[in-house]
Design a protein that fits this description.
Monomer. It catalyses: a beta-lactam + H2O = a substituted beta-amino acid. Its EC number is 3.5.2.6. Keywords: Antibiotic resistance, Hydrolase, Metal-binding, Periplasm, Signal, Zinc. This protein is an alpha/beta fold. The protein has one domain: Metallo-beta-lactamase, Chain A (4-Layer Sandwich), CATH 3.60.15. The protein is built from 7 helices and 12 strands. The strands form 2 sheets. Strands 1-2-3-4-5-6-7 form a 7-stranded mixed sheet. Strands 8-9-10-11-12 form a 5-stranded mixed sheet, with no helix packed on it. Helix 6 packs antiparallel against helix 7. The radius of gyration is 19 Å and the shape is globular. It binds zinc ion. The site of zinc ion has 6 residues, from loops. Zinc ion binds next to loops.
Length: 242
């Protein structure tokens, strides 16, 4: 009887652990062209929450838009890019100062990447004792790596004071990070460092500047909808912001 109850305790422990830990620590999904979305998990309110980043493969190396949230996945992502594409990560750009974006800056710099954030993001990284980039930019900036160009654009405050988005004109991809909510989200998420009143105008600034993207990659949850900009406005309106 005792061994049976011990067996049950074990089974329970295994199941409890299994339900709390996502079965995969890092998933990589082709988006379009030479772009891939990677997803890792972090704990928020005692729940595992997926966070999305993106990478671009060019003839001169790979570019990371944000780093995995799960710090144990920095190296596996690097290894996977090397194995699949034969490329090193040459540039890593974090889109705001939170851990699900910037945690990997020091790691990827150590492995040879040029690491970038906006000046404002770097100030906040410094203030909150987060990893900091090697390089900063002061205003909206077009980067060119190999045969690709992409634009880092600051539309205004929202999820955080410093959140930027990235536009890839060739593929009409908007990498939105946490400023853009997935259509799977039921609320605005963590707004402790945000500005809910300014957020709607920031979304409209993106819409005015880039028109209709083919793909919109959100910071969390599924990114298979083109309606996530409008959906973010809807969530904001429900919060009384417009
Ligand atoms: Zn986030």
């Amino acid at each position: 009887m005792q061994s049976l109850s011990i067996a049950f305790i074990f089974l329970f422990a295994i199941l409890a652990n299994w339900t709390q830990t996502p079965s995969k620590k890092l998933t990589i999904t082709p988006l379009t062209g030479d772009l891939y979305v990677f997803t890792s998990y972090g704990m928020y309110n005692d729940q595992p929450v997926p966070a999305n980043g993106m990478y671009l493969v060019t003839k001169d190396g790979a570019v990371l838009f944000d780093a995995p949230w799960d710090t144990t996945q920095f190296q596996p992502l690097l290894d996977s890019i090397k194995r699949k594409h034969g490329q090193n990560v040459v540039l890593c750009l974090a889109t705001h100062w939170h851990d699900d974006r910037s945690a990997g800056l020091t790691f990827y710099a150590k492995h040879g990447a040029k690491t970038y954030t906006s000046k404002l993001t770097d100030q906040l990284c410094k203030e909150y004792h987060k990893p900091r980039p090697n390089y900063t930019f002061n205003q909206d900036t077009v980067f060119t790596v190999g045969e690709y160009s992409f634009e880092a654009y600051y539309p205004g405050e929202g999820h955080t004071k410093d959140n930027i988005v990235v536009w890839l004109e060739k593929d009409k991809v908007l990498y939105g990070g946490c400023l853009i909510k997935s259509t799977a989200a039921t609320n605005l998420g963590n707004v402790d460092d945000g500005n809910v009143r300014a957020w709607p105008q920031s979304i409209r600034n993106i819409q005015q500047r880039f028109g209709l993207p083919q793909y919109i990659v959100t910071g969390h949850d599924r990114w298979d909808s083109k309606a996530s900009l409008d959906y973010t406005l809807k969530l904001l309106a429900e919060q009384g912001a417009n």
